[in-house]
Amino acid sequence: MRFLQTLPLLAALLIAGCGSDRNEFSELWNTPIKRLWQGEEDRGNVRAALTPEVLAQIGRPTILLTVPGRENVESPFFAEERNGDTVTWLSVNNEFLLLQDGVLSGTRGLGGDLMNADLGEVHEALAGRRTQAVRIHRMLDGENHIVAESYVCDYAQRPERVAVGAYLTQVQATQIDETCTGVERVFENRYWLSGRGTIVRARQWAGEPLGYLEYERLSD
Length: 220
Description:
The protein is α+β, with helices and mostly antiparallel strands. It has helices at residues 7-18, 22-37, 46-49, 52-58, 120-126, and strands at residues 62-67, 73-83, 86-90, 96-100, 103-108, 114-118, 132-140, 146-164, 169-181, 186-193, 199-205, 212-219. It has two domains: 1-59; 60-219, YmcC-like (YmcC-like fold). Strand 11 (199-205) and strand 12 (212-219) form a beta hairpin.
């Protein structure tokens, strides 16, 4: 998920989006993406390259994923397809995130993948219709066996201003803390919901060895 590996796809998407207007493409490519490509700028500065202009040229909903357990490596993921309430997000390295109305329901290609999760009660709790929920994770272990893990989760919420987007714009959101207790571990997810009830930023447990995944919406 190193950003230098993402640049060829960004370039291809920009070229496709610009069509015959290569002057516009050249302006977008020259800075700061070109400097990142040539190693003249911090490769971890993904956010700086994903300007509103670049996101508009990409033309797909985009999220920025951060993996704290892997030295806070960042990578953009692009909406690939929707199946009901679940959107599949794809990175340039063919890694997948499955978000069910913004809640992590699966990963592919990230190692120790979360194959799927039962989240019906979780969505009810996030909507304020219950204060406790059961969630079940089905994980892929080191021997490619699926192992089920069950958790009982409690919820607390409070209003907060949160920074989201390419330029970390402050927006009013409701922060919801989800504390989940299982047989072997306790984890705490955190969601920030806009006034429309959309999750604009989240920190969610993906299981071992990934740990937590953090994402924020850069464009819709």
